Amino acid sequence: MTTTDSVSVFAEGTFEEQIQELVDYVSRGSTEDERAAVLQSFQDIVKTDEGAKPIKEDEERRRHALTLVLDQTKSLGDGSEQEIEGFFNLLFSHLLTLWPTDSPETKLHVFSLLGVLAASPSDHASVKYRIISNIFNATPRGSALRLPIYTALLQVAAANGELGTLRLSRNDVEQWLQEWDISSEERSQFLKSIVDAFIKSGLSETAYQYTLSYVSSLPTSSPECQSAAIDAIALALGLPSLFDLDPLFKLDAVVAAKDHELFSLLQVFLNGGLPEFRSWLEKHPGTLEKYELDQAQLERKIRLLSFASLGFAHIGHDLPYSEVASTLQIELNQVEKWAIDVIRTGLLLGKLSQTTQSLHVYRSSARTFEREQWEALEKRLVAWKAGLASVLEVVTSAQKRGNGSGVSEVVQQAVQTGESVQVDTA
Fold it and tell me: How far apart are CA 149 and CA 405, in angstroms?
C-alpha cells in the first residue's frame, strides 16, 4: 500500500444533508430510542431560529453538529467496507474544514478516531489501512498530526503481520521527518516505533536500518541513547547475513559505549578472527545468553568475515586452501564449502581450482576502510596505472602496424587487469 499526497472525498448536498448522512450511519446499530435521541439532537442543532444566521454562515453550530457525530463514533459502524471508508473520509474532511489542522480540538478528535480504528475487529484490517492512509494523506504535509496518524497505521499493520503492505521506505521517512513540525524527541520516538514494528513483524534486517537512524537521532549523553546503542550492536551481531558493521561502529553513541562488553565483541567482528572471538567468549561467560545471541551463528559469521579479509589481501592473486584452512580453523576438505558460502554472501568473488588447491580472488570486501585499506588500494591503483601504460604502448604499436590481433590481445589484457584491481567495501 502506497501513500499519496491527496485524497478526493466525493460528497453531494448541503452541509446539513451530509451531516444527516453521517448521523444516519453512526446510529444504525442503536436502539430506536437512542436513534431518535441522536436525530433530535442533530435537528435541534441545525434548526435556524427566526432572525438567526443560517447554519452555513454559523461556524460554531457547524462545529457543534460535527462534534455530535464524532462523539457517537465508537466503532467502524454497521456497513459495507465501502460505506465504512466513505463515512470516515467525509467525517475527517469536515473535521479539517471546521478546525485548524493543528488545533487542540482537531488533535483530540483525531486521537479519538485513531483509537476507534485501532480497537476495531481485525477482520476489517484492509479497510482500516485505507481509512488511516486516507487520513494521513488528507492531512497537510507539514502537520504534526501526521506523526500519530502514521504511528497508528504502523501499529495496525504490525499487529496483523502485514507491515509489508505499507511499502515503507527510508526515503519516505527521512522526507517526512524533514517536513513535519515536530520536536527532536518526537522524531526519535517515531523512528523507535518503526524499529519496534519491523521487529514485531520478524523483519529484523529492515529494523536494523531504521535502528541506525534512531540511534543517530538521540542525544549521545542520554540514557536512552546508551541503551539504544547496545541494542543496536546486539541486533547487528545477531543478524546472520549482515556483514557491514562499519556504519554502526562510526556512530558516536556506539563509540561512547566503548566500555561495554558488547562493544569489545563488535571490535572483534570488525578487526579480529576466530581466535579473538573465542578469547572474548572466555572473558565474558553468559553474555551471549544475556543478549540472546547464538554462538554457532556468530562463529559462522566471524569465519566468513575472516575469509573476506583474507581475500582482500589476495585480490588478483591465488589464495591457497591451506591458508584459508589455517585462518578459519577448519579441515582442508572443508575449504571449498566455505568458499562457496562466502561467495554466496557477496563478500568475495573468485574462482576455485582443485588442481592448484587455491582460490583466485577477483574482488573482496574489506570489513572497514581505514588507512591500511586506503594504502592497499593505492598500491593496486598504481599497479593498474602501470599496466594501462603498457596496454597503451601495445595499442599504439598495433595501430601503427594495423594489426587487429594485437588490439584483440590488448583487450584481453585490459579485461584481466580490470579484474585484478576491483575493490569493494562492505
Answer: 68
Task: Flag the least confident range among 7-16, 59-68, 332-341, 372-381.
Answer: 372-381
pLDDT recorded at residue 417:
45
Burial string for 197-213 (b: 16+ CB within 10 Å, else e) reads bbbbbeebebbbebbbb
Tell me, what DSSP letter sits at residue 124?
G
Above 70 in pLDDT, residue 329? yes
Question: What is the pTM for the complete model shown?
Answer: 0.77
- Coil, helix or strand for 317? coil
Q: How far apart are CA 307 and CA 365, in angstroms?
A: 10
- Bigger pLDDT: 370 or 199? 199
Rounded distance between C-alpha atoms, residue 207 and residue 53, angstroms: 56
Please spell the DSSP secondary structure of 322-373, one letter per residue. Answer: HHHHHHHT--GGGHHHHHHHHHHHTSEEEEEETTTTEEEEEEEEES--SHHH
Closest CA to 80 of 3, 25, 1: 25
Q: 380: which residues sit within 8 A by CB, 6+ positions away?
A: 315, 316, 420, 421, 423
